[in-house]
Amino acid sequence: MATFLYRIGRLAFRRRHFVALIWVALLTLAGVGAASAPPAGNSSFSIPGTEAQKAFDLLEQRFPGMSADGATARVVFKAPAGEKMTDKLNKAAVGKTVRELGHGSEVASVADPYTGHAVSRDGSIAYASVKYKVSGMELKDSSRDALKEAAQQARDSGLTVEIGGDALTAMPEEGAGELIGIGIAAVVLVITFGSLLAAGLPLLTALIGVGIGVSSITALASALDLGSTTSTLAMMIGLAVGIDYALFIVSRYRAELAEGREREEAAGRAVGTAGSAVVFAGLTVVIALVGLSVVNIPMLTKMGIAAAGTVAIAVLIALTMIPALLGYAGRRVKPAGEKSKLLGGGRQAKKPGRPNMGTRWASFVVRRPVAVLLLGVIGLGAAAVPVSSLELGLPDDGSQPTSTTQRRAYDLLSEGFGAGFNGPLMVVVDAKGSAHPKTAFSEVGKEIKGFKDVVAVTPAAPNKAGDTAIITVVPKSKPSSKSTEDLVHAIRDKGADITAKTDAKLLVTGSTAMNIDVSQRLNDALLPYLALVVGLAFLLLIVVFRSVLVPLKAALGFLLSVLAALGAVVAVFQWGWLSGLMNVQQTGPVMSMMPIFMVGVVFGLAMDYEVFLVTRMREAYVHGEKPTQAVVTGFRHGARVVTAAAVIMIAVFSGFIGSSESMVKMIGFGLAIAVFFDAFIVRMAIVPAVLALLGKRAWWLPKWLDRILPNVDVEGEGLRALAADGKEDERELVRV
């Protein structure tokens, strides 16, 4: 591996014009594809095999043309103070709006508030329901514009009007957070390298990689039904790993220059050694992201594969474009320990022979391993305590910022009709096998009215054949509450009794039921996914480190990190700690995909630091150093760079905390805090402490396993042999 990558590095350095041309051409091609492609929609939470999805499929068969999964909108009206929606002028304004809403070619139906009993008891609030023929992803901008214009006309008459539903889905606002994160990354790189040029290389290559990845996703978004969140995730992870991977190779290149090697040779060795770590670190991230497909949720699968593709591009760019750009930079990239004239006048950054911070910290840890280990484990354990009260759910309009019309519509409906009105349940009664369908419909309605958390049950609405009916159930509690979830399960449990009595089947669906099914699927898949991803990465790390205990320690450290990070997420987004600082306007259940998503992404990122830091230790140990001294050597060479990489990744992820979309905000915070815990507590404290306690046993590998494992040579031993052969050839030439 090291020899192969060494040759790639030298080739890219020499053929830099060709390499740069290829990547610029790919970026241009992806950009043109993105510019000419239709915009992405919002992926739906469809899950094959769930009861909610089966009910939607049944409705498509029994109610042709109904568009059961079509977009919906609720235009909510509130009368001015002292007036009622039943007043003549207000009624006329609403009637005009309803007529305007029905003109669109994609509109299936519009329900008038006054004929559909959609006026609150006190008469202050009313709503009109709009049903579309196509889903929210397929809805044209002209239909959305018509919806907004109709609402604005009603506002002009003096009414308060807000729009809820998935027809006018709020897109995440692009704030300055991402740019601030990149700015912090740039500052960290300048401090790390002491050179503006060297600092600019990782940023440039990361932006090119993310540009190719995100543009490709945008170009394929419509064809592959990729939601808007997919490109956000790819950008988030692609930027972080792209900067980090380039950072490690540039840092190793400067270290090779400091040892007196020629620039082409230094580029080859940097790619051969640090590049090997980049390949395996990237593989762990890709495994974790692609592994999300085992959950069998199409949206999550697409997000994982798209982000994995962006990571793969980041690896390829780091291995090829970085050495090419180093060739262009020439002597302007200084050896390690020297600063540029602009930042240090060419002086050395520190006194020769003085131990750096990484050396001093590692020396302290190996002297006090038990104390450091206990302090780290207890600290992470304390941070993980809130996980014991973790509640999972999926976001609805109630989690939107109060500045959005969706959130204001949600609040108005709650005020006028109750919290559960925002998440009605759709009960589908399949009476095709029943001798008395009407009796079955009536029986189901009576049974559901008996549940304590039910506010209202509409009469059954049968299809033309009379063998299937829809009953709408309004819960007492809000859609994301535990009470509503319990009600869905209770109605489904009652289905068996109803089938025994009437031979009719009962299915519960609707957006609320679909969200509950998504959460259940995610919960059921968490442990199998964890076993698959950690198991595959464990085998990969055994090959890299040729050790059993080091990968085991890495996996256990990751579990501590992810539990502590989940605890922090619960504290902020569920309990409300520091919610004002994070601009969390509505606390509630943690997004149901958060645990499985964090397991996948954080594991991959955690293994980055493990590979980058411990391969240096392994390299020193293989080359004859004692175990404790190898730990110190690994920190001397790698701690500064790993620290910079972690700060950069935290900065990039933190930039997404400013997003208006609750899911993106939560992911950004969760990943940022997880990287902090993993890099600075697990990898910088617990890992050296454990390795110091284990000593030589840390690198133990059964002989039978050693014989069958492939030798990937991450330590660059093959490069030493290559250098030795080169010197021998030089001696032969001298003799001749």
List keywords for this structure.
single chain; 736 residues; alpha+beta; four-stranded antiparallel β-sheet; 11 strands; five-stranded antiparallel β-sheet; elongated; 63% helix; 7% strand
In short:
The chain contains 23 helices and 11 strands.
Any overview of this molecule?
- The protein is an alpha+beta fold and 736 residues long.
- The protein has 23 helices and 11 strands.
- The strands form 3 sheets. Strands 6, 7, 8, 9 and 10 form a 5-stranded antiparallel beta sheet that branches. It has a 4-stranded antiparallel beta sheet with strand order 2-3-1-4, with helices on both faces.
- Helix 12 (357-367) packs across helix 20, helix 13 packs antiparallel against helix 21 (662-694) and helix 20 (627-654) runs antiparallel to helix 21 (662-694).
- The longest helix is centred in the C-terminal third of the chain and has 35 residues, at 511-545.
- The radius of gyration is 30 Å and the shape is elongated.
The separation of the N and C termini measures 34 Å
Relative strand content: 5-15%
**Anisotropy-based shape:** elongated
Largest sheet descriptor: 5 strands, antiparallel
Unreliable stretches: 727-736
Number of helices: 23
Average pLDDT level? 82
Based on CA atoms alone, the radius of gyration comes out at 30 Å
Strand tally, please? 11
Percent range of helical residues = 55-70%
